[in-house]
Amino acid sequence: MRFKSIVVAAALGLATALAGCTTGGPLKVFTSDYGTVKDAGYQLPRIPISQVPRKYHRQIVSYETKEKPGTIIVDTKDKYLYLVQENGKAMRYGIGVGREGFEWSGTARIAMKREWPTWTPPAAMIGRQPELAKWRGGMPPGLSNPLGARALYLFDSSGDTGYRLHGTPEWRSIGKAMSSGCIRLMNQDIIDLYNRTENGAKVIVKR
User: How far apart are CA 23 and CA 4, in angstroms?
Assistant: First the structure.
């Protein structure tokens, strides 16, 4: 009887542990990782992270999915980006998304990764904002560049989608819909995501 009791207790403990893996709650939060960063000759300023809702701070969460580790899943509704990890976990980042009329969803792959990328506004954007015409040939990298410290370029079966996962100096935009369709992360977060992501990684963008 004693052996049976031990087995039952162990089974209950395992069930409790497994149930905990489906809660979606934070397992670790990286609130302290938003300080000043020196990178490739640039100095990214500290983000006043206390002014960003805690749910958008980088954190490891429980996340059940059939997608393989290394897959990126973007939840544009709740403004989260998940990098799938092993054992039912994911690294979750807060994001800013496209405003109404500029949303995009679908499945793509990361075809290129760039550090301190050049930003070239599309012709349609220049048509809406003629003042951007001066950057028709490309805006040099820098702290004010809209692509921030890193960019991951999304391609599908038709080629370049024109959409990117990229950094932004506008940390106040995280959690909001105000971009021209691209998915933006705080610069400290896009550097972290860039370092964890491989070329060819699958990206699923959900509305």
Answer: 29
CATH of the domain at 166: 2.40.440.10
List residues with catalytic annotation: 166, 182
Whether 196 maps to a domain, the answer reads yes
**Predicted TM-score of the model (pTM):** 0.84
Tally of domains within the chain: 1
Give dist(CA 34, CA 28) in Å, integer. Answer: 15
Taking only the tens place, the pLDDT of each residue in 129-175 is 888 888 888 889 999 899 999 999 999 999 999 899 999 999 999 99
Domain that holds residue 163: 23-206
Read off the tokens for 115.
């550090």
pLDDT digits (tens, 9 = 90+) for 166-200: 999 999 999 998 876 689 999 999 999 999 999 99
